[in-house]
Amino acid sequence: MLTCTAVLCSLAGALARNNEYIVRPKGAKMRECTGECSPEPHTYLAMHQLPTKFTWGEVKGEQFGGQQGASGLTTILNQHIPQYCGSCWAHATLSALGDRIKIKRRGRGADINLAVQHVLNCGGDAGSCHGGNPLSVYEWIKTNGHIAYASANPYLACSTESTAGWCEHVNTTCKPMNIARTCSGFDESGGSCSALSHYPNATVAEYGVVMGEQKIMAEVIERGPVACSVAATDALDNYEGGILEEDPADGSQNWMVNHVVSIVGWGEEMVRNYKNGQDKMVPYWEVRNSWGEHWGEAGFFRVLRGSNAFMLEDDCAWAVPGKFTGDGENKNKPCHENGDNCGNTQACGSGESGGDCPQQQQAAKKQSSFHSLDANTRH
Hints:
By secondary structure, the chain is of the alpha+beta class.
């Protein structure tokens, strides 16, 4: 197989299609941890110790406290709505980190989904709607100290440099309102929006890079999914199922890295009349994309494993979760609906005066007579 450097692959891929992967600069950290670094799984798990099939989409009972067939994966995301944004690098990394938080919780509680928009607004060199780097996301979270949950900062598919769609009319600068916010009601009803002074968040304890079949398998089974760069070709764009292999007709595009996905498991499948006409057991990776559940195998795809197909095994980023809201003693500090105890000084009853806001209440009463869903059903 022909090879190319990450830089050349990235530059060449940009000519053929939207390139959403940016190579890390020379000298950038490839691993960091708080205190002593934990041993990497590939140092104590050899290939013969790994199962022939494993996926975090369906874990064994002993891994999740006896729950047979439970899932260690968070929800499938779609970077292409509400409009196109080349933020796969953020979606893949935060999905994998969210998975690892779920795994750490042994599947208990509601899924924690991390705010892609927080990274787009504040991640700086980590990336934008015109591409980024997965390891840089983990580095930014560690340096920043935390990342907000998506429920306080939903995905807008915009970044400061983007002029696509409505991005020119959306403020995505890194300010408190664009990190975590709440809105208490319609403006005409006296409502207001404000930044939250405190909000649920997650941290990263350590991060690093892994590459190669055995090392990736060991990392995934021991600690959770990883985010990997990949060459997204026409074959991937138009994927409808099965084990994906490089199409010789795509030529050098098979080695042009331009996209980021997350590996969540692996397996093998008997393929009839494989290439030379004989039946063959074909090894594959199970991979999650960020193009929605309408694409591929409900948002996932399988791809040939062990030959670095589409450069998938060449550069994968991992992170170990640190503290996160809802973990043990790190309880949520609840905010009121109007945020008056979390920084919303415009809300009725907030601030030192704690006023009743009669004008807003009068407006709200008037609006409720038209818009309340249950005003005529309660007695």
